Amino acid sequence: MNSGILLGFLVYLALLAYIGWWANRYTKTEDQYFVGGRKVHVLAATLSDKASDFSGWLMLGYPGAAFSSGLGAFWAGIGCLFGTLADYVLIGPRLRIYAGKFRAITVPDYLEARLKDDTKLIRILSALIIVIFMTAYVAAQFTAGGKTFAEGFGISDNTGIIITVIILTAYVITGGFFAVVWTDVVQAMFMLLTLIIVPFLALSEIGGFDKATAIIASADPNLLHPFGGATGMAAIVFAIGYASWIVGYLGQPHIVTRYMSVEDPRKLRRPGIFISGTWTILVLWGAFFAGFLGFAMYHAGMLQVSDPEKVIPAMAVELMPSWLAGFVIAGIISAVMSTADSQLLVASSAIARDFYHKVLGRELGKKQMVNISRLVVAAVALVGLWFAISGPKVIYQMVATAWGGLAVGFGPILVLSLWWKRTTKEGAIVGMAYGLISEVIFEAKIYGWAFNPDAPGFFGTIGGWFNGIPVFFINFFVTLIVIAIVSMFTRPPEDVVKLHEDIFKKVSIERTGKKSITEARAKSQVENVVDFILTKGTA
Description:
Layout: H1 3-24, H2 30-35, H3 42-53, H4 56-69, H5 74-102, H6 107-115, H7 121-153, H8 157-206, H9 209-219, H10 233-243, H11 245-248, H12 253-261, H13 270-299, H14 311-319, H15 322-359, H16 366-390, H17 395-419, H18 425-446, H19 457-465, H20 471-488, H21 494-503, H22 517-520, H23 525-536
Helix pairs in contact: 1-8, 1-15, 3-8, 3-12, 3-13, 3-15, 4-7, 4-13, 4-15, 4-17, 5-6, 5-10, 5-12, 5-13, 5-17, 6-7, 7-8, 7-15, 7-16, 7-17, 7-18, 8-13, 8-14, 8-15, 8-16, 9-13, 12-15, 14-15, 15-16, 17-18, 17-20, 18-20
C-alpha cells in the first residue's frame, strides 16, 4: 500500500469526521435529522443536491462509458444537464412551497398531504419504492467505493466495499441531515477539482488533443462518431439511450429532499440554477474527457487499467505524486459517499418515519425517533453491503436500474401533483403501484435495465422496437398517462383543488413605487408567487 496515497486520504477522512462531530450538535429532533430544520442555505443545498445526484456513476460509471463508447457517451452528459435544469424548474420551488405549507419532512409526507390520502396506501407504496430501489442504489455506491479503494490501495474490491460501508454509515448515523449536507459541500468541491485536474494532466501526458484523437481513431473510429457509428433511426435510439437520464431527475427522493430543506424557495430559481448548472457542466465535461482520454492513454501504452470503470483512479495513481493521488482517490470516494449518505437517510426516513411512525401509528419521542432512524440506517447499509458483494459490480447498469425504479415510482406523480390541480389520490395509488410492479418485473425478470429483443414472445417484440433504450424512460411516460387517466375518472376534494389554485394563482405585476413594470417583471413568476404567499401568510 502506498503510504503517500494513504496520507492524503486520511487527511480527507479527518475532515469528514470533524464535520460529523460538528453537525451532531445541531441534530436533536426528527425535523433536524431529515431536513436540517429547513434552515439550509441555498448554496449548501444546491451543492449538496448535485453531490447527491452525481454519485460513483459520475466518477467511475460515466468515465467508464466514455472509455468504452467514446464521443457517443456525451449524450448522457446532455441528459444529466437538462435533467438538472428540469428539476429546478418543475420540482424545486413548488415542492418547497408545498413542503412548507404542510410541514412535510419527506416526499411521502408531501404526497399524502397534497392528495389528502387517508388510506395510507400512498405512504406504504412510497416506502416500498424507496426501500427496494434505494437499497439497490446504495449497493451501487458501495461497489463504486470498493473499486476505488481497490485501485488506489491495491486491495480486493470486496475489502474496499466493507471499508466504504463502515465510513459512510458512521457519519450518517452520527450527524443526520446536517452532516450529509455539509460533507456533501466538501465532497462537491473535491469532485470538481478532481474532474478538472485529471483531464488536463492526461492531455499533457498524451501530447495534445490531436494526438489523442489520432490514437483513438486508429483503435476504433466509431468512438469519434457522435452516434457510435449508427445512422438513421438507430442513431436516434442511440442518443435517447444515453440521454434518457433526463426524466429520472424528476423522481429521485434523495435529490428533491434538498429542495424541501432550503431556507428560501425563491432562491431555487436563479441562484440555484446558476450554481447547479455551472457545477454540472464542469464535472460532466471533466468526467467525459477523463474516460475519453484514458482510452487514448491505454492504447498508447501509457496506462494500465483492468476495468474501464476504474480509469480515473488508475490515471490519478499514474499521473500524480502519491500524496496528491490520495486526495484524488478521496475525491472519488466523495462522489460515492455524497450519494450513498443521502440515500441511506431517505431509506431510513421511509422505514422509521413513513412506515413505523405514520402507518403503524407508533408514538415515540423525537429523540427516540432519531435513534430508531439511526438503527434503520445501519440495517439498510448491511443489506446494501450484501447486494454490493454479491451483485454484478457494473456501476453504470446498477445505477440505471435503481435510478429508473425511483424515476418511475415518484417522477410522474410529483410532476402532476405540483402542476395539475386535478391529480387525485386514486390516480397516484394506481400509478405508483403500476410503476413499482412494472419496474421490478421488467428490470428483474424480463429485460434488465434496457429493452432488448431477447425477451420471450410479445415482450421480445416490444424489446425490438425500443432496443437499447432504458426501460425506465418509456415506463416513465406510461406511468404518467396511467395517473392522468385515473385522475380524470375520479374527483379530487374541492378544498385540495382550491388550495392548489390559491397557492399557485397568477400574481399580477403592477407598478410599485419608483419601479417600472419592466423592472418588476425582472423577477421570475415563481418569485412573485412566493412573495404573494408570504404576504398573505399561506405558507
